[in-house]
């Protein structure tokens, strides 16, 4: 498909109307401090952080392995990254580097991507290479988009302000006095100045900088932003877009993990175990109910369909918010239910997992490539590196994804589904063959995943692959809060600030963990 200062307890008590209905059939199981639902990167991070603070933590994951959208599967000698294929935040001072240092475990082995991505607009001009070196990238974009430096300079100013702001661990959107204090404490004059663009889009930045008529630049931005924000330039918040457009350059950068993306989850599993937390795989949660004052009852099924239940003071849900309606049932406040149901659907994805002889690929084939195809659509391609643990020597895995609407894949009859899947796979393979110079007989392995398969793998509703989208109306102060209207119920993941990607969901987990601990009169700070 394409990582704190101390404060006084100032949380505002929730109103009685926000309290969930009590469950009179609560279990007699020992009361835990925290139950975390969902073993993706966000859930693993929250569980490990809270366990390190001495809380009794139970992490429930429906699948037989952790990782979620950043998980991995095997086919013979090949290892395929399910969704995410690159990582941000491993640089010094990045969120993953800070997190692993705090948890006392080593970060997974990784190498910086240079270029971070190569974007082929298929317009007869050379592909755009997102070089890691800022000066080399400046020269590249001057060659590719003549006269666009005012736009990139404006993005650089916004990005610098955003980056320093994010490093101070703000809480967005604020819902209590303590949240507001954390937000205000992270602001600086530059952030206040940039705040005038809170409701602007990246397309607005193009117009402000006099580049609104550069259609080639606009096509490039639409492709890149869709990967990270679920939206094109017109629908991506300017403050968010300015930062994601700078992620590939030092001192930040994008990283390729040795082995597979699963290495990230494995490190977090190790940290959770070291801190005494409990990970339960093949445990699918089906309901959340209040079992008494400050007590949540979690029920579901484990392997073999056997029921389980447990109780805890707090619950952290690291699932898409669209899952809350089914989990909470009538306990979900009507206004909250209405707000979440009003959000537009995130995208689904069709993902092709293939393997070829490395010698058949172009000699300069990049690790990540974006191709502006009209049929089947824009492809995001990830190619394994020699010796990175994903393919036998002399071979390479090739993963190509294209966005699709998700819901209609769920309701297809068996024969119609099989035919649609066959056609999609044929189109993606043809696009790869055309752009990578491959013959149709080159494939040593090939299979396609649809939103239906992704829903089974991750448990995400309809197989959605991203968050709510970083539209100005849903970004930052206007986004969905990690605090829910229900006391003791918290959210983290790609629908919570600051958004998608392993770095984004890790920051959301840190934010939710800090809020939960503050509600208990404790502080959490990462160096």
Report on this model:
There is one protein chain. With 527 residues, the protein is of the alpha/beta class. It has three domains: 31-65 and 91-108 and 257-332 and 486-519, FAD/NAD(P)-binding domain; 148-253, no CATH class; 348-463, no CATH class. The chain has 16 helices and 19 strands. The protein has helices at residues 41-52, 95-103, 134-144, 149-167, 177-186, 189-194, 202-208, 215-229, 238-244, 262-274, 324-328, 334-342, 407-410, 414-436, 451-458, 501-519, and strands at residues 31-37, 57-60, 72-75, 78-81, 87-88, 110-112, 118-120, 128-129, 254-257, 278-280, 284-292, 295-301, 307-317, 348-357, 368-371, 379-383, 395-404, 445-449, 489-491. Strands 1, 2, 10, 11, 12, 13 and 19 form a seven-stranded mixed sheet that branches. A hairpin with a 7-residue loop joins β15 and β16. α1 runs parallel beside α10 (262-274). The radius of gyration is 23 Å and the shape is globular.
Tally of helical runs: 16
Number of DSSP strands? Answer: 19
The biggest beta sheet, please? 7 strands, mixed
Q: Specify the overall morphology.
A: globular
Would you tell me which CATH topology of the largest domain applies? FAD/NAD(P)-binding domain
Supply the CATH architecture of the largest domain: 3-Layer(bba) Sandwich
Helix content class: 25-40%
Quickly give the structural class: alpha/beta
Q: How much of the polypeptide forms β-strand, as a percent range?
A: 15-25%
What does the average pLDDT come to? 93
What is the first-to-last residue Cα distance? 32 Å
- CATH top-level class of the largest domain: Alpha Beta
Output the CATH homologous superfamily of the largest domain. Answer: FAD/NAD(P)-binding domain
Low-confidence stretches: 1-27
